[in-house]
């Protein structure tokens, strides 16, 4: 099935099974804003727990923070967001649609890549086992021609971005003959900058209202609390502050479901280090974060680093962790060496000294910062995309059957255990409830008695429940149940008394954390 179709199915699945809903749906929705349903909120909370505990429990020198969304407006002037948190925009005059100029060009680059990959796939099919992909890529004229086009465009695009040259971005779009996907025309406006922050007012206008912003990143809340945490926590450098919270951006190209939203959640950690040591710490955090992603078991080859062509105004090194989504490799997390830019700016704008006295060096300095920043919602989408499987099964009567199964890591699954009475009578429902009453303090359980057992299993597969327990007449005689495993669909008879131990082992975060050490 085409990757695009899989993605469409995944979006539909998220709605059908209570993971993600369009915000304000009964009013026809609000663009790029989403709500999480009964299963989505559980998965989201589990993702946050995986991140939070891996930061503040596994690292003695990382502590948490929960700062307010509203902050003093000068913070955004100091951080550079008022002046430089912009996207280059271009409008198509016929469709009146607005696009990010850089995204249009990136899509063009992706088209060249796609053409090369198609040639490779065709040749692979033709030559079978004897196929040498490296040699093919180095010699095939069509691949080489597309590679050359890619290289030329990439070099020109990187330069335009680095030079902040908006006229050149427009010229690239013209030269590449990029057309509006809606109108099909190349009738473009000039490229101009558009600030992504949402603004509002605090206080009544008669008092002289204060213009405030909805934070576009959680990081600034950490920077402005650096001194508070360092002093009250008696923290010694190197140390980190971690925070999970909402962020808001007036995204223009808001597409691909929850990949790019206007209201989203970030999990950010700022690690304060000695000046000069930041690039070593940057490498260490790159490795730590990649391990965290790979520990989920979705295949090491599906992740890669992407080194930034254009560094943000605050960074001296930056990479993204990218995952192979159904629509290609895309950023899930950013790791940035932010130098002392933010703390120095806040020192200057606030007039307060923001420094650290280093007893080993016997001097004070403004710490340097390495940041890890990941979107909860984007991580959610990555996990859903990686877990979603449509499987063909051999049915008992020899006919083909299919099931949709979410192969979620058990620790992240919204429901850990479904308990099902085989029939709705003979005391089986009561026994099932008794089992839930015992296990509900340890795991999120669900009682399900509607429809055939087969249908109930499918329902649980579709939300990723790793264990289903069936209570039957034998249960009443010998206190055993059937446990069915989501991934293998194997079933076995076990004692009720053993359930807790068996499930606890599998759904615990410990197994994931053990892979991080
Ligand atoms: N403090 C640094 C910072 O905010 P960023 O690369 O702009 O860096 C970090 O964002 C992460 O936040 C991204 O890797 C992505 O996972 C997530 N993110 C950013 N913008 C987003 C959006 N509009 N919708 C959903 N997630 C977003």
Automatic annotation (TrEMBL):
Substrate binds at residues 100, 217, 264-268, 371-375. It comes from the Bacteria. Its EC number is 6.1.1.14. CDD domains: GlyRS-like_core, GlyRS_anticodon. ATP binds at residues 249-251, 259-264, 331-332, 375-378. The keyword Membrane does not apply. It is found in: Cytoplasm. GO terms for molecular function: ATP binding; bis(5'-nucleosyl)-tetraphosphatase (asymmetrical) activity; glycine-tRNA ligase activity. It catalyses: tRNA(Gly) + glycine + ATP = glycyl-tRNA(Gly) + AMP + diphosphate. Transmembrane segments: none annotated. GO terms for cellular component: cytoplasm; extracellular exosome; microvesicle. The keyword ATP-binding applies. GO terms for biological process: diadenosine tetraphosphate biosynthetic process; glycyl-tRNA aminoacylation. Residues 176-409 form the Aminoacyl-transfer RNA synthetases class-II family profile domain. Keywords: Aminoacyl-tRNA synthetase, ATP-binding, Cytoplasm, Ligase, Nucleotide-binding, Protein biosynthesis. PANTHER family: DNA POLYMERASE SUBUNIT GAMMA-2, MITOCHONDRIAL, GLYCYL-TRNA SYNTHETASE/DNA POLYMERASE SUBUNIT GAMMA-2. Catalyzes the attachment of glycine to tRNA(Gly). Homodimer. HAMAP family: Gly_tRNA_synth_B. Belongs to the class-II aminoacyl-tRNA synthetase family. This is Glycine--tRNA ligase. It comes from Sunxiuqinia elliptica.
């Amino acid at each position: 099935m085409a990757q695009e179709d899989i993605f469409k199915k995944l979006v539909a699945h998220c709605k059908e099974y209570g993971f993600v809903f369009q915000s304000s749906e009964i009013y026809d929705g609000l663009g790029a804003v989403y709500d999480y349903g009964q299963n989505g909120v559980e998965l989201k909370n589990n993702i946050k727990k995986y991140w939070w505990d891996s930061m503040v429990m596994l690292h003695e020198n990382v502590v948490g923070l929960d700062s307010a969304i509203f902050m003093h407006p000068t913070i955004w002037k100091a951080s550079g967001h008022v002046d430089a948190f912009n996207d280059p925009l271009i409008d198509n005059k016929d469709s009146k649609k607005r696009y990010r100029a850089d995204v249009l060009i990136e899509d063009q680059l992706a088209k060249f890549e796609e053409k090369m990959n198609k040639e490779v796939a065709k040749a692979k099919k033709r030559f079978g086992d004897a196929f040498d992909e490296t040699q093919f890529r180095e010699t095939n004229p069509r691949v080489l021609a597309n590679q050359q086009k890619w290289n030329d465009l990439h070099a020109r695009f990187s330069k335009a971005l680095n030079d902040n040259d908006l006229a050149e971005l427009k010229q690239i779009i013209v030269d590449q003959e990029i057309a509006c996907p809606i109108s099909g025309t190349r009738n473009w406006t000039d490229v101009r900058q558009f600030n992504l922050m949402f603004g509002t007012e605090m206080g009544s206008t008669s008092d002289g209202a204060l213009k405030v912003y909805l934070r576009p990143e959680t990081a600034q809340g950490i920077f402005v609390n650096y001194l508070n945490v360092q002093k009250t926590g008696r923290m010694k450098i190197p140390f980190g502050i971690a925070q999970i919270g909402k962020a808001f951006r007036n995204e223009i190209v808001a597409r691909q479901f929850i990949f790019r939203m206007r209201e989203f959640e970030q999990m950010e950690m700022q690690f304060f280090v000695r000046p000069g040591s930041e690039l070593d710490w940057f490498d260490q955090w790159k490795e730590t974060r990649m391990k965290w992603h790979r520990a989920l078991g979705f295949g090491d080859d599906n992740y890669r680093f992407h080194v930034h062509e254009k560094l943000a105004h605050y960074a001296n090194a930056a990479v993204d962790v990218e995952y192979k989504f159904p629509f290609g490799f895309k950023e899930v997390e950013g790791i940035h060496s932010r130098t002392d830019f933010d703390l120095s700016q806040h020192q200057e704008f606030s007039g307060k000294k923001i420094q650290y006295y280093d007893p080993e060096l016997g001097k004070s300095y403004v710490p340097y910062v390495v940041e890890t920043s990941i979107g909860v919602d984007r991580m959610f989408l990555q996990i859903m995309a990686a877990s979603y499987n449509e499987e063909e099964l051999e049915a008992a009567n020899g006919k083909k059957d299919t099931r949709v199964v979410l192969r979620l890591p058990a620790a992240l699954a919204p429901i850990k255990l479904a308990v099902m009475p085989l029939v709705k009578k003979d005391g089986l429902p009561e026994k099932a409830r008794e089992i839930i009453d015992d296990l509900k303090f340890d795991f999120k359980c669900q009682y399900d008695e509607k429809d055939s057992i087969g249908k109930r299993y499918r329902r649980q597969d579709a939300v990723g429940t790793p264990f289903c327990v069936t209570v039957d007449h034998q249960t009443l005689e010998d206190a055993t149940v059937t446990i069915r495993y989501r991934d293998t669909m194997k079933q076995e008879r076990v004692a009720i008394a053993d359930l807790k131990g068996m499930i606890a082992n599998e759904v615990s975060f410990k197994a994931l954390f053990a892979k991080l050490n």
